[in-house]
Design a protein that fits this description.
By secondary structure, the protein is an alpha/beta fold. It is built from ten helices and 15 strands.
């Protein structure tokens, strides 16, 4: 079968022939892979910079996707081991407990593109913070795919205010249509501190020095310092490290938590994804996607960093995507 391999960290991926896998374990499920998202985490794992990067090379990249089982059922799958992966192949074996059945008319490309960027905000707001209708949410880094999804999800879950902060003016202007009640350039720290002074939850895809400055600006303006603010570190677009302001942490109640593969159990993740699959398959949550054959992986790898859409690779034959058809 054809599969993608990364021979060394940071090297371009290659399309190779590998033996087809067999299901041998009690929970093994054999899938014909239809669509695999080329997500930022996949790129980071392949260059060795992500905390879940495999310990050894060569390896098959890809952490999730859509496949069809031997009974013909369409399934979303995800690899949840700390360093598991291997979705970019024509056929794979997955843990059946880490799959979610999809409606037969679900678009594999749309699901493969959307589940990963939507996952972080969904799992945080539905589980980690248990957002209640009427609470306020700030999304830092709202112009990336995950941040845009976070804005849409917060609105879908009945947040009272959804404040979107990002760097790209064009994409920032689009967020009102996704449910943002306020949009602020991420560099306008004092305005952002005033606008988001009393939020209940911050979804932070930025981190680094911008987070430190914004946290200090918000802390200085909270009307009720004892009202809990849950600050969720999800991504690190600016920097993996942030010089947190001690005065902000002492002057008001800020709970800083992280959300990632190690911060939630496999059962919690799968339960959340089962709930998320409904609105994704129904088209309520959509990331712009570009479908390409698996053979184009090398060029796609280069293109992924510059595109705002999500590249989805097609390891096997699949019906034309509804997204490509414009529906």
């Amino acid at each position: 079968m054809k599969a993608v391999t990364v021979a060394s960290f940071g090297s371009p991926p290659k399309l190779v022939e590998l033996p087809a896998p067999s299901a041998v374990g009690a929970h093994d499920l054999l899938l014909d892979v239809l669509a695999v998202g080329l997500h930022p985490i996949v790129l980071a794992q392949a260059d060795g910079s992500h905390y879940t990067s495999p310990r050894a090379v060569p390896f098959v990249p890809g952490i999730d996707g859509v496949g069809r089982d031997t009974d013909g059922e369409l399934r979303y799958f995800i690899f949840l081991g700390s360093r598991d992966g291997g979705a970019m192949a024509e056929r794979i074996v997955v843990n059946a407990r880490h799959t979610v059945p999809l409606p037969p008319d679900a678009d594999p490309v749309a699901v493969a593109a959307t589940m990963n960027p939507a996952m972080s905000a969904w799992l945080v707001l539905r589980g980690r913070t248990r957002l209640r209708a009427g609470q306020d949410v700030l999304v830092l880094g709202a112009t990336g795919n995950s941040g845009r999804m976070a804005v849409r999800i917060a609105a879908l879950l009945s947040a009272r205010r959804v404040i979107a902060a990002g760097r790209d003016p064009g994409r920032l202007a689009e967020l009102s249509a996704l449910g943002a009640t306020d949009v602020v350039a991420i560099g306008e720290t004092q305005l952002l501190g005033t606008t988001a002074a009393d939020v209940d939850v911050v979804l932070d895809y930025v981190w680094g020095t911008p987070t430190a400055a914004i946290m200090a600006a918000i802390a200085a303006r909270r009307r009720d310092p004892s009202h809990k603010l849950t600050w969720v570190e999800i991504g690190s677009a600016a920097s993996p490290d942030a010089p947190l302001p001690s005065a902000a942490l002492r002057s008001c109640r800020i709970d800083i938590v992280g959300s990632g593969r190690g911060a939630l159990s496999a059962d919690e993740i799968v339960a959340g994804l089962a709930d998320l699959a409904g609105p994704v398959a129904a088209g309520d949550l959509v990331v712009e996607a570009e479908a390409r054959p698996l053979a184009d992986v090398a060029q796609s790898w280069q293109d992924a960093a510059r595109l705002t859409s999500r590249i989805v690779l097609l390891p096997g034959p699949t019906a034309p995507s509804k997204m490509e058809a414009g529906s």
